[in-house]
Write a structure and sequence with these properties.
It is a single chain. The protein has 214 residues and is of the alpha/beta class. It contains seven helices and nine strands. It has helices spanning 3-11, 31-38, 56-63, 77-91, 107-112, 133-140, 175-199; strands at residues 20-26, 43-50, 67-70, 95-98, 117-121, 144-151, 161-168, 202-205, 208-211. It has a seven-stranded mixed sheet, with helices on both faces. It has a two-stranded antiparallel sheet with strand order 8-9. The radius of gyration is 16 Å and the shape is globular.
Length: 214
């Protein structure tokens, strides 16, 4: 059993009788979205919002009957954030889950959804924040990288850390090979974290996050 599966097993509980609706923000193919869809239990992927009308992730959402919304990027981060927040409020989701969403939301999102937005990042934060995290890890010659799920704050890849899973960097790794192993861990740990959030089993105070299985 790998680390991601061990964490999942440690915190898995029977699903809630009434799942909590979540909204997922996407920009690309939607592999993490698919993992979230495949593991619905205490949460339900009710709405999927994208900044791209042609994002393949939207097809994954439509295939399971989730509402889809497109909020096009217009080059103005504040206006874009405002429109995203309005769309989120209209759908009424309890949690906002970023899954391959390639836009940085402005401070308004944090004000309107405090401690309700989570993100997944392909490194062991605080190492290698921002874009190209896998390439950064390889360039630095690290022996281990991984996956981090964290709350979103006003800085990039900076919010309180909820869960981390290490991934070994092998001597012959290239970016594609390493990223593929990281994604496998992402698809295990992200649904487990979102399920725990839906159950109210994750508490955050400042930068300290605790899991309390109910």
């Amino acid at each position: 059993m790998d680390v991601g599966e061990a964490i999942t097993d440690a915190y898995t509980s029977p699903p809630l009788s009434q799942p909590i609706d979540i909204a997922v923000l996407v920009s690309g193919s939607g592999t993490n979205l698919q993992a979230l869809i495949d593991h619905q239990g205490s949460y339900r992927v009710a709405t999927v919002i994208s900044d791209r009308v042609d994002a393949p992730a939207l097809d994954r959402a439509r295939a399971v009957g989730a509402e889809t919304v497109v909020v096009p990027w217009n080059g103005d981060r504040d206006d874009f954030t405002h429109r995203i927040c309005d769309a989120l409020e209209r759908c009424g989701a309890a949690w906002v889950v970023l899954a391959g969403f390639m836009r940085i939301l402005g401070p308004e999102a944090i004000r309107r959804f405090p401690d309700r937005i989570v993100n997944i990042h392909p490194s062991l934060l605080p190492a290698f924040p921002g874009s190209n995290a896998v390439a950064q890890a390889l360039a630095h010659g690290v022996k281990q990288t991984g996956v981090t799920v964290h709350f979103v704050d006003e800085q990039v890849d900076h919010g309180p850390i909820i869960a981390q899973v290490p991934v070994e960097v092998l001597p012959d790794d290239d970016e594609d090979a390493l990223h593929a192993r990281i994604r496998r861990q992402e698809h295990v740990i992200y649904p487990a974290v979102v399920d725990a959030l839906a159950r109210g089993e994750i508490e955050v105070s400042g930068r300290r996050v605790e899991w309390r299985k109910r």
